Amino acid sequence: MKASRPFRETQIELLKDPKAAALYLEEALAAGDTDAFKLALRNVAEARLGGMSALSERTKLNREALYRSLSEGGNPTLETLTKVMNALGLRISVTVERIAARAGR
After folding, report:
1. pLDDT digit string (tens) for 79-91?
2. 12, 5, 6: which is closest to 49 by C-alpha?
3. Where along the chain do its domains lie?
4. What is the pLDDT of residues 65-77, one digit of tens each?
5. CA–CA gap between residue 23 and residue 39 (Å, rounded)
6. pTM confidence score
7. What number of CA atoms fall less than 13 Å from residue 95's CA on the CB side?
8. Residue 58 in contact with residue 87, Cβ under 8 Å?
């Protein structure tokens, strides 16, 4: 029987792919749990850049401030999120959630 890999190793390997990372972040955001989204951002940063230190260098943001912003209870600004997403090779976008809701139905 083939030995299995730890989940974390598999997760990091999968999140190196930009499409998989984008889908992972979309799902975390769609869940409506901001702490889960911030954890997902940290996971993607680890997979794609090697961690928060590299993210800090790429964003030109203070590492401690990044940890604080992306921690449970942290409150990152839109500017911070935009810089983080850009550093990860991703971007923030807006889509229509429900057409019926927009039409007032």
Report:
1. 999 999 999 999 9
2. 12
3. 7-102
4. 999 999 999 999 9
5. 14
6. 0.83
7. 7
8. yes
